[in-house]
Amino acid sequence: MPIRDDVRERLEAVGELWGNPGLRRAQLAWGGFHTAEWASLVALSVVAYEADGARVVGLVLFARMVPSAFIAPVAAVIGDRYRRERILILVHLVRALACLGAAVALALDASTLVVYALAVLAAVPLAAHRPCHLALAPLLARTPRELAASNVAALTFESTAVLLGPAGAAVLLAVSEPAAVFAACAAVSFLSFVAIAGVQPAALPSTVEGHPGVVHELREGARALVGNPPVRLVVGLFGAQAFVRGALGVFLVVVAIDLLGIGESGVGVLTAAFGVGGILGALAGLTLVGRGRLGRPFELALAGWGLPLVLLGLVPESGVALACLALSGLANSLLDVSGFTSMQEHSDERMVGRIFGLFELVVIVAVAAGALVAPLALDILGSRGALIAAGGLLAVLAALAHGALGRIDDGMEVRVAELELLARTSIFAPLPYAGLRRLAASLGERRAGAGEELVRQGDAGDLVYVIAEGRVSVDQDGEVLRELGPDDVFGELALILDVPRTATVTATAPVVLRTLAREPFLAAVTGNQLSEEALGRLVAARTPAALADSAGERTAAQRVP
After folding, report:
1. Per-residue confidence (pLDDT) for residue 491, from 0 to 100
2. Does position 293 have pLDDT exceeding 90, yes or no?
3. Collapsing DSSP states into helix, strand and coil, what is residue 242?
4. What pairs with residue 517 in β-bridges?
5. Helices 352-400 and 229-254 meet at what angle, rounded to 10?
6. What are the distances in angstroms from CA 210 to CA 207, 214, 524, 528, 560?
7. Strand pairing class (444-448; 511-517)
8. pLDDT tens per residue across span 88-141
């Protein structure tokens, strides 16, 4: 019975996500992007292999990553500087036009170099797509379950895309030419453009007048990533997986056409098998919704990505190939759900765009390196040996990271009661879930009996208090101003105005308080536009006009992009 309840709860979380219009549209656009990506990769690989052979397949797949690698640092900054949904609109439009251009070029029998150039242009949006989508999700999610469920949904759509894109490409290649595949990709990309155009996040990160510059902001993001051990570890291991994924794109062409002898459409069939496994993995990812402690599932998924490739190298048969790629696809979904959720929960939302942008840079460089190294590995080790070496690399890295991944979520266990308490307050309610979770992890506790003085007028203040239970009286110069009860906040004026306590607060009944220190409080409320506005209204209600104006000036000065 508890297991059934657990499954039902997770399915309800997915239902809640689907009832969130912004997340629903974003996930549909995400799925469309990846459908076009995988279908166009199959078509491009076939065009390159038939024209110039396996070595050029690797070079073309490498070349399409190069511009994205240069753009990724800029994408990392603009994801925190500008509205992420608007960047995604441009991403889908560029992809649609590039795919349409490739279709026209092939239909007119233009040089393959023109097709390669347009394929490179179609890959440019890769640098901005994933970082902006993953940074947008925490702003659209309304609950912790929705955030984790959004990653499950994203992987479901992406895995479905890995199935539908290559399968659709295989069908079109069997009855038509690569030009038809690129035309279909253009149509899908335009539909994604339409979907994302309707997204309007309720919570927006604050921005500042006069940005300090791309290099400075990128350096801040790099420091945030390097100085964050859990995120740094996950990004590094994702990079290794991306290297193998880049090599696999070349391996599959050779395996399908030369080793297994199943022809051009076989490339699409093998890639689609990966997608089938990804869909199953996304469904299995429901078990990770609301789970916490995601390091161990990430480790198992990393090993599960590589070991099937080892088996395929040992037993190169068509049925085994389909099963092994399905297993790798299943592990891929679990890897992404656990890894992305962990990164979102450990990252400051003011830096999350830059962190995911730098993550995308790592992935792009790793995929490009894998595609470039793959032909050399095929020459030296043969197709079977190359598969064994690539898959074994991930299994070894998973084993080496066993201890660190087991400790990745230490200190992140947060009671639901704290999260719900913060979400009921006027100041903290506008924060996205990831921000609330970090604040909840920073909360302390204080208890006091009736008549006990909690703060005294004129004293220095370094804590903000949230009332969990009981009531307090607020007086200034001996005059009672107001009474506060559960879910109310006090003590914020001394911190936001940087002045001594403006009133004395006394418990009128036994109280249970949650306390929050100056640094996490200011970082949270001055880093989110709606939370900042709520704080401004509270300050204005509790202080004279002059002090309220001062509060506004100080708040603006403390904003962080």
Report:
1. 85
2. no
3. helix
4. 463
5. 70
6. 9, 12, 21, 18, 12
7. antiparallel
8. 888 889 989 999 999 999 999 888 889 888 988 888 777 777 777 777 776 777
Question: Any alpha helices (H) in 66-124, and if so which ranges?
Answer: 66-81, 84-107, 112-123
CA distances from 98 to 124, 125, 212, 355 (A): 10, 10, 33, 27
CATH architecture of 421-558: Sandwich (2.60)
Does the pLDDT at position 370 exceed 50? Answer: yes
Rounded CA Rg of the chain: 26
Q: What CATH homologous superfamily does 2-406 map to?
A: MFS general substrate transporter like domains (1.20.1250.20)
Task: Indicate the DSSP class of residue 465.
Answer: E
Number of neighbours of residue 486 by Cβ within 10 angstroms: 14
Amino acid, res. 72: A
Lowest mean pLDDT among 34-48, 158-172, 204-218: 204-218
Residue 213 backbone phi and psi in degrees, to 5: 115, 150
Average pLDDT value for the chain: 78
Query: For residue 304, which amino acid is it?
Result: G
Residue pair 515/444 in contact (Cβ under 8 Å)? The answer is: yes
Burial of 428 (0-12, 13-18, 19+ CB in 10 A): buried
Give the relative orientation of helices 112-123 and 21-52 as an angle to the nearest 10 degrees: 150
Q: Is there a contact between 113 and 154 (Cβ–Cβ < 8 Å)? A: no
- Residue 535 to residue 497: CA distance in whole angstroms: 12
φ/ψ region of 517 (left if φ > 0, alpha if ψ in -120 to 50, else beta) reads beta
Q: How far apart are CA 135 and CA 205, in angstroms?
A: 11
Return the SS3 of 455.
Answer: strand
Which residues make Cβ contacts (< 8 Å) with residue 8, sequence separation at least 6? none
| Bigger pLDDT: 495 vs 452 | 452
Bridge partners of residue 483, in order along the sequence: 473
Q: Burial code of 457-479, b = ≥16 C-beta within 10 A, e = fewer?
A: eeeebebbbbbbebbbbbeeeee
Q: Which of the 8 DSSP states describes residue 490? A: E
Give the residue among 405, 521, 499 at the shortest CA–CA distance from 455: 499
Give whole-number Cα distances, 39 to 43, 170, 179, in Å. 6, 9, 11
Calpha distance 222→420 (Å, rounded): 32
Domain ranges of the chain: 2-406, 421-558
DSSP secondary structure code for residue 561 in this structure: -
- Per-residue pLDDT band for 549 (boundaries 50, 70, 90) equals very low
State the pLDDT at residue 472: 94
Determine phi and psi for 240, rounding to 5 degrees: -65, -40
Q: How far apart are CA 278 and CA 216, in angstroms?
A: 38
Position 60 scores a pLDDT of 81
The Cα 496–Cα 335 span in angstroms is 41
Assign 240 a pLDDT band (cuts: 50, 70, 90). Answer: very high
Task: Check if the beta carbon of residue 176 is closer than 8 Å to that of residue 39.
Answer: no
Residue 292, Ramachandran bin (φ over 0: left; ψ between -120 and 50: alpha; else beta)? left
What is the per-residue pLDDT for 56? 80
Report the SS3 class of residue 313: helix
In 3D space, the residue among 188, 154, 181, 138 whose CA is nearest the CA of residue 35 turns out to be: 188
